[in-house]
Amino acid sequence: MIKRAFLSLLLLSSGLASAAELTELEIRWLKAGADVLHYAKQVLQLPLDITVQPQARANDVPLALGYDQGRCKLVLSLRGNPHAEDLLDSVPAAQRGWMIEAMVAHEIGHCWRYAQGHWHALPAGFAERPPAAGAAADLRDTRREEGFADLVALAWVHQRQPQHYATVAAWLHTVRFGAPAVGSHSTLTWLRLAPTGAAFTTDLPVVEQATLLWRQGLLNDE
């Protein structure tokens, strides 16, 4: 019931009048991520807007998050996107919703960092060893944010769908293993800290669970 009601709210927030204006693929993605989005808005109280692009542009990723004027902007670029589900090609159809839910949770991790004013910032007490500058610093900072967001996704899966944790974690490892060793999305430093859901402190909110492991990973992220 919550998921169906929240989907209606998503339609309004995206500026679409009815589900008839959404494609089947867009509806499937929004339904898969509805619980995460409800949590983000109602529990975390994040300033989150959702946009469904009427037509994907060249090089658009299917799901992305930005930040503008104090609000997170979650953008779905599925319509007319030939690469909309490339990351899911190896996933059985019955399991794709689990991966999409994890992807949405990943983006909410980004939103939380933005909203807290922590984007590209280290926790108190951390110092760079060694310091970096220019493009190297930008790459490192982005990789760290991706590591945090991946941990939020895994913490969410463990809290809400623990029976699927191993499957989602294995898929995420496969996705990240394909990234260049020094790439902005090479997050294995953090993924290795959560081989099972037992790595998370489940009596804490999801973002705090992720933060604890993220701090551990920073110690090894030179």
Automatic annotation (TrEMBL):
Highest taxon, organism lineage: Bacteria
Keyword Signal annotated: yes
Signal peptide: 1-19
UniProt entry keywords in alphabetical sequence: Signal
Protein name: Peptidase
Species assigned in the record: Duganella lactea
